Structures are given as C-alpha cells and as structure tokens.
Amino acid sequence: MNPDCLFCKIAAKELPATVVYEDDAMVAFKDIKPVAPVHVLIVPRKHAPSVAELAPGDTLLVGEMIRRAQQLAEELGIADRGYRLVFNVRKHAGQVVDHIHLHLIGGQALGRMA
Ligand code: 5GP
Ligand code: ZN
Asked: Given its phi and psi angles, is residue 31 left (phi above 0), alpha (psi -120 to 50 degrees) or beta?
C-alpha cells in the first residue's frame, strides 16, 4: 500500500468506486470516465507503478489479471462480440495513474489502435 496512491486507496476502500470483482490479489471497478459502454479497471492490490516495473515473480499475478478480464467480459456480456485489453505504460501511452491497471473496454465497436 502506497499512501499517496489513488488506486491503493480504492483497493483499500479508503476511496469509493463501483467494484465489480475483488479477491485477495486484485480489485476490479468501473472507470470513472468510461470510453465505451463497458470500461473496467483491473487493479492488483500490490502497488507497482506500471508494467515497466514488473518483476519475474509477478508473472502469475499478471496472468490472473488477464484471466479475470476474460471472465468479467463474459459476465458483462461483451465476450462474444469482443473487447480490448490495454496496459498504458508511462508517459507516451498517456498513463495518468501510476499503479498498474488493466483496462477492459467493450460494448461497442472500437477504432483500430495499431
Ligand atoms: P491510465 O491512462 O493511467 O491507463 O488510466 C487511468 C484510468 O483511471 C483513466 O481511464 C481514468 O478515467 C481512471 N480514473 C482516474 N481516477 C479515477 C477514480 O478516482 N476512480 C475511477 N473509478 N477511475 C479513475
Ligand atoms: Zn498503488
């Protein structure tokens, strides 16, 4: 827990959010400024600033985040038509919250990014 970190505070329930899933390792909640009908952030409870700081021991956690995204997509009804998973990493990607998070975005056709 980093006391200055927005997503650490949300994970610790010190700040409110619309939580759609939580377990010992992670919490998932609706993005406050959604870019599509479904926009959920999957956030590990453990603080790391971004993918750039991941260590070899984080491999399982990252896999669990992606698997959770897959399951939430099913539950939220967007799996059949498809969705996008995004990790923004540092400045050029426009990362604004320096606590690693996976965006799950869907519910409409999304423009190509690359
Ligand atoms: P980033 O650009 O860092 O990958 O995305 C951070 C995301 O967090 C943005 O989509 C932004 O809308 C969302 N966000 C920022 N502050 C809050 C907040 O206080 N609550 C929630 N639920 N989402 C937030
Ligand atoms: Zn944090």
From this structure: beta
- Whose structure tokens read 């400045």? 91
Closest atom, ligand 1, to C-alpha of 103: 4
User: Is 6-106 assigned to CATH 3.30.428.10?
Assistant: yes
User: pLDDT (tens digit, 0 to 9) for every residue of the chain, 114 residues total?
Assistant: 899 999 999 999 999 999 999 999 999 999 999 999 999 999 999 999 999 999 999 999 999 999 999 999 999 999 999 999 999 999 999 999 999 999 999 999 999 987
Ligand 1 lining (C-beta closer than 6 Å): 6, 17, 29-33, 41, 88, 94-97
Q: Using the mean position of ligand 2's atoms as its centre, give its distance from the Cα of residue 48 in Å.
A: 6
Domain residue ranges in the chain:
6-106
